[in-house]
Write a structure and sequence with these properties.
single chain, 99 residues, mainly alpha, 79% helix
């Protein structure tokens, strides 16, 4: 289901990708990667605040998966930037780069 959602996202079918990911999350609600992908879709849909929240949830579940956490911090940085929180965006970018 995640692969299908990624294909939908890449082809611009953000609503379809979100629906596929939401179905997957009903099956595996503790899967950080799925939350991360949904955050990325929401960001691309222009729903920056929701994207930041979803990325934070993914980080809470990510455990020892640095690439997922790194992408979550990038989503959070962009979410903060779009809301005008430049300091928060800068801090999130530092976290994304491991600093």
């Amino acid at each position: 289901m995640a692969r299908q959602a990624e294909q939908q996202r890449q082809s611009g079918d953000y609503a379809g990708a979100a629906a596929s990911l939401e179905r997957s999350l009903r099956i595996a609600p503790r899967e950080a990667y799925l939350w991360n992908r949904l955050a990325r879709v929401r960001l691309e849909q222009g729903q920056a605040a929701q994207a930041g929240n979803l990325a934070s949830r993914s980080n809470d579940l990510a455990g020892d998966t640095p690439d997922v956490k790194q992408d979550n911090w990038r989503v959070i940085a962009e979410s903060k930037r779009r809301s005008g929180d430049i300091a928060g965006a800068t801090e999130a970018e530092k976290r994304a780069s491991g600093n």
